[in-house]
Amino acid sequence: MKKLILGLAVLGFSVSSYAVDGFQVYKKYCAECHMTKVPMEKMKKMEALVKAGKKPPIKAPPFTEVSARIKYFYPDKKDFVNFVVDYITNPSKEKAKCLPPALKLLGVMPPIGKSLNEQEKKAVAEWLYDNFNSKWEDFPMAKKHMNGEHHH
Which residues contact 118 (CB under 8 A, 6 or more apart)? Predict the structure, then answer.
């Protein structure tokens, strides 16, 4: 029995040491620009600045908002992951899913995905999908922009 437990522990350790941790990828490549959470009160203040055409005190939308926005268009995890992997590698204004005022003020993100291997890109995209459960409809700016907006 001890050999079995030891064998499983070794196997479990060796398997996990090869797996890419999406949170670690986030911390290394994404955290400088994307916060994970912003209190709704602060979010409302930032959205008011954007609405007024003023740059908010952030470099990029928080991941709570990014995840909710992308899920609005790509609710299926596989589609979501494929979109994120593609977008972070080859971002463009045409592909961007953030709201036009935010895109205008913050611009298109740099192609950070070119610095990541495929496993890292997929890991961070899956982490983004799995760890943020806000719905786009819950964000103050969403209500204004959802009328007439088409998603999958």
Answer: 85
Could you tell me which of 95, 94, 72 has the C-alpha nearest to residue 83? 95
User: What is the model's pLDDT at position 32?
Assistant: 94
Q: pTM of the prediction?
A: 0.79
Q: 16: Cβ–Cβ under 8 A, 6 or more apart, which residues?
A: none
Question: Whole-angstrom Cα distance, residue 151 to residue 138?
Answer: 16
Which burial class, exposed, middle or buried, applies to 125 when counting CB atoms under 10 A from its CB (0-12, 13-18, 19+)?
buried
Cβ count within 10 A of residue 117: 11
DSSP 22: H
Model confidence pLDDT, tens digit, residues 90-146: 999 999 998 888 888 889 999 999 999 999 999 999 999 999 998 888 877 776 665
Q: Evaluate whether 119 touches 128 at the Cβ level (below 8 Å).
A: no
Instruction: Name 90's Cβ contacts closer than 8 Å, sequence gap at least 6.
Output: 111, 113
Q: Do residues 34 and 61 lie in contact, with contact meaning Cβ atoms separated by under 8 Å?
A: yes
CA-to-CA distance for 28 and 7, rounded, in angstroms? 32
